[in-house]
Design goal:
Elements (H helix, E strand, L loop, with lengths): L1 E6 L4 E8 L11 E9 L1 E2 L2 E2 L4 E6 L4 E7 L4 E7 L10 H11 L1
Length: 100
């Protein structure tokens, strides 16, 4: 299984996971899910995601930089190790807690 991030024109960032079975990625039934993690906002509301860049540090930290037309957003944190699936949700939930 592998996770990746997908951005939308409505400013939403989703974690996408596609799990391939024995038939490979192009088999008739790959398992997949998309989970909403965050919405990027500018002054006027949600803004289209222009770019998402993910870097993993040697110390287990993950750095995510996303951009809209006017702003740059960064998310930094550790992704829990040892879980069956590593999820980006912990990085984005920290940011949501800071906004409150």
């Amino acid at each position: 299984r592998s996770s990746d991030l997908v951005g939308t024109v409505q400013g939403q960032i989703y974690e996408a996971e596609i799990s391939t079975s024995e038939g490979g990625l192009f088999s008739t039934n790959p398992d997949q899910y998309f989970r909403l993690l965050y919405t990027l906002n500018e002054e006027s509301g949600p803004a289209p995601v222009c770019c998402i860049e993910i870097e993993r540090g040697s110390d287990g930290k993950c750095f995510i930089i996303t951009t809209t037309r006017k702003r740059l957003f960064q998310f930094v944190g550790k992704i829990p190790e040892g879980a069956e699936q590593q999820s980006f949700s912990s990085l984005f939930s920290i940011q949501k807690d800071r906004k409150s």
